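Practice record 12: protein with cytidine-5'-triphosphate.
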Amino acid sequence: MALLLSGKRILLGISGGIAAYKSADLIRRLKERGAEVRVIQTDAACEFITPLTLQALSGHPVANSLLDPAAEAAMGHIELAKWADLLLIAPASADLIARLAHGLANDLLSTCVLATDAPVAVAPAMNQQMYKNIATKHNIDTLKTRNFYIWGPAAGEQACGDVGMGRMLEPLQLVDLVLEHFAPKVLPLEGVSLVITAGPTREPIDPVRYISNHSSGKMGFALAEAAVQLGAQVTLIAGPVQLATPAGVKRIDVVTADQMYQVALEQAISAHIFIGCAAVADYKVAQVATQKLKKTSDDSTSLTLVKNPDIIAAVAALTSQRPFTVGFAAETQDVANYARQKLVKKKLDLICANDVSLSNQGFNSEQNALTVFWADGEQQFGLQAKTELAQQLLLLINERYLHEKSH
Ligand code: CTP
């Protein structure tokens, strides 16, 4: 049976502190679980535990100097930084944390931290007063904002006799955090399949002219991208838009409302959730001319328009294999009222309403604000990037979907 850390490459950085003696045990525990471990020690760390001990335990020479020709020839510092799946610094002294917070590269370990694109986990270990110092606190906060993991410290008796926060976590606690870091994550929308319509539709008048609208498709595409990131299987039915297909999304391009209707109904019956984000043209030209229409001497002309099928209402009316159905409402006034009316009329489970009278949101904008309504509730999402909004909205949709499913 494969060990939990099989194939994982952990670059262990050890800085100067009494807790450095625990690093020997940490290496053993990581290796027992299948990890490959290479070690970098700072000069100060070499005063607390010998490179020879760590070399024997890790099975590799310990790296210490940036300027060591033999070590650079074996595995250069950039290579070492690239090799790592995780850079774990344990113990991380107050001095090292300060240097990392300032982005210094004045020894091998700090250089590798700058040169790696692997996640970096820091296990602070220092005297409780040093840990409490506002400078240290500030430095740790800085690392957090840069997405470093800060593991520990723990409270307890310290080597110097003080009692308080600052002890490095025990090797087994650090191993648990490493295991958790590498454990496959269960995403909130895993196992959920979604069909999303997006963009405008284009209704031909003749071979060169059409009726359409300003929908950019950005909201629907952002929803598709966010849904994949949250673990869902996504089919995106797109009207004519100039947008790249988000990674992992199955895209079906359509042009007219009739085409979108046909594809949407085919796809909806195998989906858990259907989201109608498209700005479907309400009408199409009754008789599409086969040849280009010519100007006449009349000052005016007219087209006869007939209603397009209502795609989302048809999906919501499915009697078997009906997905949880979510619509959008673009309103310029009395938003809540009109949205709730559409929710009922189209028999939707949820409707997301936005006020398109505001110039900085909705159609063609990068930002959007929404109010979501369902039979016995509502929730507001403030103005924000469509990408962020998409993620929050999907979590709410999934919550409501699971709620409905369980009743
Ligand atoms: N919709 C659809 N098929 C249509 C028209 C709209 O699926 N033929 C969907 C949209 O994707 C959206 C919702 O219905 O989810 C929008 O409702 P709709 O009544 O079309 O909104 P408006 O066009 O704004 O309606 P009205 O003009 O009545 O305000």
